[in-house]
Amino acid sequence: MSEPLLSVRDLEKDYVSGGTKLTILRGITFEIGKGEVVGLVGESGSGKTTIGRAVLRLIEPTAGSVSFAGREITKLSASELRRARPRMQYIFQDPFASLSPRMTIGEILTEGLRIQKIGTSKERIERARKALEQVDLPADAVNRYAHEFSGGQRQRIGIARALTLSPEFIVADEPVSALDVSIQAQVINLLRDLQQRLGLTMLFISHDLAVVEYICDRVIVLYLGRIMEIATSAELYARPEHPYTRALLSAIPSPDPDAPRNRQVLKGDIPSPANPPSGCVFRTRCPNALPKCADLVPQLRETSPGHFKACIRDDLN
Hints:
Elements: E1 4-17, E2 20-33, E3 37-41, H1 48-55, E4 63-68, E5 71-72, H2 78-84, E6 88-91, H3 105-115, H4 121-134, H5 151-163, E7 169-173, H6 181-198, E8 201-205, H7 209-215, E9 218-223, E10 226-232, H8 233-238, H9 243-250, E11 300-304, E12 307-310, H10 312-316
Parallel strand pairs: 3-8, 3-9, 6-7, 7-8
Antiparallel strand pairs: 1-2, 1-4, 4-5, 9-10, 10-12, 11-12
Helix pairs in contact: 3-4, 3-5, 4-5, 5-6
């Protein structure tokens, strides 16, 4: 891995709802190198979006640290964080809800530039036009409104909004999950092209493991707020070690319906964060669980160069 641009250490996030404490994240630790695309995968409710928002301080973490380019951003004041924002941007999941229907596309794209007091009005609109062209939309779209565009085009506008501030790091939160399958491929190819052309560093959040394999250099597997496995994309898909990862990968549809399948179906649903299992949070659905899994929290350990797994069986060896 190249020099880390983002470093996350022991990140935690709790919520209190109706007097009940919800444990969303625990002990989240990882790094993303400059120019790297890291995938974050897991079932709904695993905490993926919470991580994406916490690392940019769109929500405040309960504990832990996040360093960006060597600077601890969890300790920045509001004014210091505002100045750091242009370097870190977010692409939202829903292209329909994330664009204001009352603003022109030009106003949407230049809003961040206005807040950051970057350039004159003319210079800001020119940057907006350039960003639209980067995502293969006409520059004159600055004069139109979001309802005039399709879902795929709206997501391109959302990507353009992130690009106007010339960021180094982008969190892409399920950027194609709300799109038709035929449009998903176009947007994913666009993101991959932009990442390579602009040298962007990216945290790519998705539940679609086929997409993650295509675009990501490394993958983090998350379950109920804890990391189960981290490896390069090639290593993870070829040799998954954690039983949760193997179950996720076995669910990927095969283009050959006659190919032999070793489907590993998990029993039950992901537990509630209001009442997570003791010990290993995956133990209630794990086919290899031991009695000690109820008592011991597995630590993320390096099982081979660059490959990390959290499993109590490794801790007992």
